[in-house]
Write a structure and sequence with these properties.
The complex is a heterodimer of chains A (about 425) and B (about 900). By secondary structure, chain A is an alpha/beta fold. Chain A has eleven helices and 27 strands. In chain A, helix 6 links the parallel strand 13 and strand 14. In chain A, helix 1 runs parallel beside helix 8. The radius of gyration of chain A is 23 Å and the shape is globular. The N terminus and C terminus of chain A are likely disordered. With about 900 residues, chain B is of the alpha/beta class. The two termini of chain B are about 60 Å apart. In chain B, helix 3 packs across helix 21, helix 4 packs across helix 14 and helix 17 crosses helix 19. Chain B has a seven-stranded mixed β-sheet, with helices on both faces. Chain B is globular and about 115 Å long. Classes of the chains: A alpha/beta (about 425), B alpha/beta (about 900). At the A-B interface, helix 8, strand 25, helix 9, helix 10 and helix 11 of A face strand 30, helix 27 and strand 34 of B.
Chain lengths: ~425, ~900
């Protein structure tokens, strides 16, 4: 990697990173791999920690991990790489004309390159009572701490939103001893990730864990005097709760960029090199919008980091292309994976396996002998491999009959000489 | 019961000695009896599997009457016997003795056979008693009688070991008489052993050990042996002294042979073989004095079967090769007691003890010995005619014992119609459900092998005991006893005072000696017969029970006779053997444009007859588990069928469905179908229904080996198979074959209709209609693949695999799951794949869920690639590269691996 090293000049170019989250720091890591000494790097973060694995917040909530176990980069790591870290001090303004940023605490730094990785903000339902004490979102360690505290004091919780985060939050609170009601607007849980068959199995499994489900339920207001006391639904029913978690989605946090005049739509608009409309400013992660798409999963962020780092390192040889998405529910004991076009449609074919007694449902969607989508419930160990097949567009015709039984069968048959292209 | 019981195998006519022992758990173990002269300790696979055929599943255990509506009613013996006797009495009184008939079996013991023959011919007064031996043996019987004057097999198995040349004519000995075959092959391997020539249109397993195979055109055997006779004569390979002293009719026979077969080139053309091969055979035959010509159904089952037998015997008479060690014509039988049946006269054209119906002196001998009120004086109806007579209403009462004519007769659908039209059908059997028993008005439970007690005679005239070592199950009774009790009810008590098989055997032995050889003091005329068991007539009950296998005739000192006719004295009145002129005759029905192929039928190695016993053995199901249609690939192309797929075979008489196979041993223009499968084991596989009802004019034996047929595709929408612990209703799929396994029944199925909803159909068929049933399924709807399994309390109960294509998984692994009391997690996960994952596919518990990387895979990579950091693991296996949740575990695995390596 040393060949990328620039001749030392009096002053190295300065890279300022706004956001100490997973996408921003992964970009820094990738950059350090490519060009370890190219920049003077400074990182501002809103949260008062090093960099942690946000995906594992669910396990933190459920008590399966401790906070120190989800840390990715400690302050020592920043120091060792000569990075100036400003934790708990978000940037509040970008002065693009003067190439400077200013933090809430008043720190002002000049930059030669700026990387915005401000992530996303949870959506707060615009209903009466949404600001009552006891109403939380599920975004950061502090949210988890609040929920854990509530679980120690209160008995009943309502979680609004039956997506990945909502289910994980409901499960975590339930494991911490609360009676949890999960409220979801659609009749299908995880309707972004599952088809109805798999969602029914998931619902059954959650109910078996003691969760109450209210599907097809529209929240109209939160009620309570000093503190939230429950959720009122459109059908007139009321669900009493001492803690209400809103997990109804996120939107890109593009406010800072927008305020500085960078072109934004739903998120900060970037091109295939993750560059914004300002050539000195890059953006990665959930705050960006790439060709109309916004992001909520980790895999695209990793890829963006890889591409962006290459451009920051002045290699400029990588391009970001949005791929298929794959998601996995992190509820211990519920193995759930979905990828690609798991609904299918005209011209697609289904392979389906059902084993209700073992709680297994698998569906693969094929199109012209290529795998285009997968829903795995109850046994998702081959999810990654299927995702690979989807991304590579592998012709699965030679082992179509074995495909759904997993990689072990198809590799065996490949070894048996049935002519699988390597 | 403890200890080993010496008994005799109940399958083919080799008559192997078996030692049977009953274990503490009731399981029966069998081994070959080293002391038995027929097999010297060997057993074939069917014999070795006898223990697996003795369970009571499907056994007929109680007398049963069919009500007018068709329902079956279990009754006591009294009512059943009254019904049989009453029915017979009524029909006898109204229509006379020839309106009743018996159709019996080469599986009856000699004692059973003797009693039923006596009842028919001596008391009822009809010779309408025929046997399924008619279907396999009667041409040999007729040939022997024409040539020798008596139905005698002159040689013994030792001759096969002592021979220089063995000619196997129309015999797949390797499959049908394996122990005799092993004796030949062993002798051959020991160096000085015999050359083997196989004459068979098919290249069978027997041909693998042959020095020469002559694939003659079916039905041309007579030309082949006529040509041989001519060749021997022309080359001076004759025993003129023997011919002069001990034979007559040579000139006529030679003239007939010369007329058509004097030129080997013409014979080769006629028989469809290479001239060089033909001449090799002829030269070998001419050169080797010690020649045995062993023949079986390929010779017998023909419209010229008797002539084939005589054309073969002619060659032995011309060369004087008979009755001496290592030589002779040798008929080998397919049933355990075809020979015993012949000895007591259990054929419609025989009387008893090798005496004839048409001879007044013979009738007098038998009637006076029996002291019977009547004696049949004209031949009865032979098997095929008998069923014709039933259909036409001339025979109104038919008692079938131990045989399954709806499967085994030619034009078997006609036999079905005959039984359906018959006033009274009585069936004595050991199993309840057979294609024939479906038509019975009275079902009588008989004893089976291991339960019954008596004697059988093998192909080398060896009388051998079948001894009981199991208790009689349910209400089952010995056949002789059932017949005795009916005879007594018919008012014939005086002639049927038997208390056991010993009484009957003694009477039979006395009859064989009665007025045999020399006139006695009373001056009554005698009839000399080779069959003489007089020396056994004094056996006590204990002696009888302990009787060692012995070859008749038995000398006064109780010794057996391995060979007959050594002295050149034959059983004709003048002591001379007869040459029989045998002009060649083509099979009755030639193939034509509409039915262009020739159907041949026969046995497979591991099944026997209609599978009532061998069909129970999982071991025996493994060799060939489905009915098949063996044909030449060119014919398959011509008729639009494909190997592995189903085809319909159709003749003018009937049709069936079987799976096409290219065994490689069949000539173009010919097809082969095994005889065993029937309605109990397959939806549509009774080949008897296709066979032309043509018989040999002398013997009455049907032409099973030559029926014109055509082959058509049997198009189906899907193929499949199902396993069940319990029987599945067979009405559901359009095509099915049942195969019995160790803990399951397997059904190979196919269906002509598309199924709208495979799941619903399969659940209903497998009996898992309950929506809460533990049912797992896999479906690939657009390729028509559906697989499902039904699990009850963690044990597999049934499973089904369907596909629109011939791409079903192998059955072996699934079969093994039925041996397990519970399915473990990995079995269950693999179940619908139909096989376990490939070797090395056990990745261990998943560590990286995102990329599905297991612990075993990780440890191996860490070890083999020397990985030291999670990042290196990610670079190599991608593990940890997505959400990163497993990175701590990756670290731990690295630490562990290094600790292990350091230790």
């Amino acid at each position: 990697m040393g060949q990328a090293r620039q001749p030392m000049s009096e002053r190295r170019p300065r890279l300022v990173v706004i956001g100490n989250g997973m996408a921003g720091i992964r970009t820094v890591e990738e950059l350090l791999q490519l060009a370890p000494d190219l920049y003077d790097i400074s990182v501002f973060g809103a949260e008062p920690y090093g960099n942690y694995n946000r995906i594992m917040l669910s396990l933190l909530l459920s008590g399966e991990k401790r906070a120190d176990e989800i840390m990715l980069n400690t302050p020592e790591w920043y120091a060792a790489h000569g990075i100036a870290l400003y934790p708990g001090d978000p940037v509040v303004a970008i002065d693009r004309a003067r190439r400077r940023v200013r933090s809430r605490a008043g720190v002002e730094l000049a930059y030669d390159r700026l990387l915005i990785a401000t992530g996303s903000q949870p959506v707060v339902l615009p209903v009466p009572g949404n600001d009552l004490p006891g109403v939380v979102c599920f975004r950061g360690i502090d949210d988890v701490e609040r929920m854990v505290a509530a679980a120690g004091t209160y008995r009943r919780a309502a979680v609004i939103g039956g997506g990945l985060l909502g289910i994980e939050a409901a499960n975590g609170l339930s494991r911490r001893g609360m009676q949890v009601c999960l409220i979801h607007r659609s009749h299908v849980l995880l309707n972004q990730q599952l088809n109805a068959d798999a969602a029914r199995l998931l619902a059954g499994s959650l109910q078996a864990r003691g969760l109450t489900l209210r599907l097809g339920a529209q929240t109209v207001s939160l009620y309570g005097r000093e503190r939230v006391e429950g959720v009122a639904l459109a059908d007139g029913s009321r669900i009493d709760a001492d803690l209400v978690v809103m997990a109804v989605g996120v939107h890109p946090d593009a406010a800072l960029a927008k305020a500085s005049g960078i072109h934004c739509e739903r998120g900060i608009v970037v091109d295939d090199t993750l560059q914004t409309y300002d050539p000195l400013v890059y953006a990665v992660g959930e705050c960006v919008q790439h060709r109309k798409a916004t992001f909520g999963l980790v895999a695209p962020a990793w890829e963006q980091a890889r591409v962006c780092a290459a451009h920051l390192a002045r290699f400029g040889h990588r391009h970001y292309r949005a791929g298929e998405n794959a998601t996995r529910l992190k509820v211990t004991g519920i193995d759930l994976y979905s990828a690609g076009d798991f609904i299918g449609g005209a011209g697609t074919e289904d392979l389906v396996l059902r084993d209700p007694r073992r709680g297994i449902y698998k569906r693969l969607v094929l199109k012209e002998n290529r795998l285009v989508g997968a829903v795995l419930y109850g046994d998702a160990k081959d999810g990654g491999w299927y995702f690979e097949l989807i991304q590579n567009g592998t012709d699965i015709a030679p082992w179509r009959d074995r495909l759904l039984f997993g990689r072990g069968y198809c590799q065996a048959s490949a070894a048996g000489g049935t002519g699988v292209a390597a | 019961m403890n200890g080993a019981h010496a008994t005799t195998c109940p399958y083919c006519g080799v008559g192997c000695g078996v030692l049977a022992s009953v274990g503490a758990d009731g399981a029966v173990g069998v081994t070959g009896d080293p002391g038995h002269g027929s097999n010297l300790g060997r057993l074939c696979v069917k014999g070795a599997a006898l223990g697996e055929t003795l369970d009571l599943q499907g056994r007929l255990l109680q007398p049963t009457l069919r009500e007018p509506g068709g329902a079956l009613r279990r009754v006591g013996w009294g009512e059943a016997l009254d019904r049989v006797a009453g029915g017979f009495r009524r029909i006898l009184d109204n229509h006379g003795p020839d309106a009743v008939a018996f159709y019996v079996s080469g599986q009856l013991l000699t004692e059973d056979y003797y009693v039923v023959n006596k009842l028919a011919k001596g008391y009822i007064g009809t010779a309408n008693i025929d046997t399924n031996s008619r279907l396999c043996m009667s041409s040999a019987v007729a040939g022997h009688k024409r040539a020798f004057g008596e139905d005698v097999v002159p040689g013994c198995y030792e001759d096969l070991e002592q021979a220089e040349l063995i000619v196997l004519a129309g015999s797949n000995t390797a499959w049908c008489h394996p122990v005799v075959f092993q004796r030949m092959v062993k002798a051959k391997e020991q160096g000085a052993g015999p050359r083997i020539v196989v004459i068979d249109p098919r290249f069978t397993a027997t041909c693998e050990s042959a020095d020469l195979h002559l694939p003659i055109r079916p039905g041309t055997d007579v030309w082949l042996f006529n040509g041989l006779l001519s060749f021997l004569f022309r080359h001076g390979a004759i025993d003129a002294a023997f011919v002069d002293a001990h034979t007559q009719g040579f000139e006529q026979a030679l003239a007939a042979a010369e007329a058509e077969a004097g030129d080997p080139a013409e014979v080769a053309r006629r028989c469809g073989v290479q001239l060089a091969d033909l001449l090799t055979f002829y030269r070998w035959f001419a050169r080797h004095g010690k020649t045995v010509s062993l023949f079986s159904q390929g010779v017998n089952q023909s419209s010229s079967g008797t002539d084939k037998v005589n054309s073969l015997i002619n060659c032995h008479l011309l060369t004087g090769r008979i009755g001496k060690p290592g030589m002779g014509p040798f008929s080998i039988t397919g049933q355990p007691n075809a020979m015993g049946g012949r000895e007591v006269g259990g054929l419609a054209n025989m009387l008893a003890a090798h005496m004839d119906l048409h001879e007044a002196v013979h009738r007098d001998i038998v009637q006076s010995f029996w002291d019977s009120p009547r004696i049949a004086s004209r031949p009865g109806l032979k098997a095929v005619e008998l069923f014709d007579a039933v259909l036409e209403g001339r025979v109104k009462a038919l008692w079938i014992m131990g045989t399954n004519p709806v499967v085994s007769l030619p034009d078997a659908d006609r036999a079905k119609r005959a039984l359906a039209a018959c006033e009274l059908v009585v069936c004595s059997d050991i199993v309840e459900a057979t294609d024939t028993n479906a038509f019975a008005h009275v079902l009588l439970p008989a004893l089976g092998w291991g339960e019954k007690n008596g004697t059988v005679t093998s192909s080398e005239r060896r009388i051998s005991r079948q001894r009981p070592f199991l208790p009689a199950p349910g209400e089952a009774r010995a056949d002789w006893r059932i017949v005795r009790d009916v005879a007594q009810r018919l008012g014939f008590g005086r002639g049927f005072q038997y208390d056991g098989p010993h009484d009957i055997f003694i009477e039979h032995a006395r009859l064989t000696a009665f007025r045999n050889h020399a006139p006695r003091g009373d001056g009554l005329p005698a009839v000399p017969r080779q069959l003489d068991l007089g020396a056994l007539a004094a056996l006590s009950r204990q002696d009888y029970d302990a009787l060692a296998p012995v070859q008749w005739p038995v000398t006064a000192d109780g010794r057996g006779t391995p060979r007959l006719f050594a002295d050149g004295r034959f059983a004709h009145g003048d002591g001379r053997a007869r040459f029989v002129a045998t002009p060649g005759r083509a099979p009755a029905h030639a193939p034509d444009a509409e039915y262009p192929l020739v159907l041949n039928t026969g046995r497979v190695r591991d099944q026997w007859h209609t599978m009532t016993r061998t069909g129970k053995s999982p071991r025996l199901a493994g060799h060939i588990s489905e009915p098949y249609l063996d044909m030449h690939p060119h014919d398959a192309l011509r008729f639009g069928v494909r190997e592995g797929e189903l085809a319909r075979v159709r003749s003018r008489w009937g049709a069936m469905v079987a799976r096409v196979r290219h065994g490689g041993g069949i000539l173009a223009g010919h097809v082969f179908v095994p005889i065993h499968w029937n309605d109990q084991y397959a939806s549509d596989a009774r080949v008897g229904g296709l066979v032309n009802p043509v018989v040999d004019p002398v013997s009455g034996e049907p032409e099973f080996k030559h029926t014109p047929v055509r082959v058509e595709p049997f198009p189906v929408r899907w193929y499949g198979f199902a396993f069940g612990r319990h029987p599945l209703p067979t009405a559901r799929p359009h095509h099915w074959t049942l195969i019995r396994g160790e803990h399951f029944l397997r059904y190979e199925i196919a269906h002509r209709d598309r199924l709208a909803d495979c799941g619903t159909w399969a659940r209903a068929w497998l009996g898992a209609g309950d929506p809460d049933a533990d049912w797992l399924e896999y479906e690939d709807r657009s390729t028509g693949v559906y697989r499902a399994a039904y699990v009850v309390e963690d044990r597999i109960e049934a499973c089904i695999f369907l596909s629109a294509r011939q791409d079903l998984p192998a059955r072996q692994w699934l079969a093994g799951l039925f041996a397990q009391d519970r399915l473990d997690e990995s079995d269950r996960a693999s179940l619908l794949a139909g096989e376990p994952p490939g070797a090395g596919a056990d990745t261990g518990p998943i560590v990286c869920s995102c990329f599905g990387v297991g612990r075993n895979t990780l440890c191996a990579a860490i070890r083999e690639q020397g990985l030291e950091t999670p990042a290196q693991i990610t670079a190599s296996l991608r593990a940890g590269g997505n959400c990163g949740s497993c990175v701590p575990e990756l670290r731990q695995l690295i630490t562990e691996a290094h600790a292990e390596a350091g230790a």
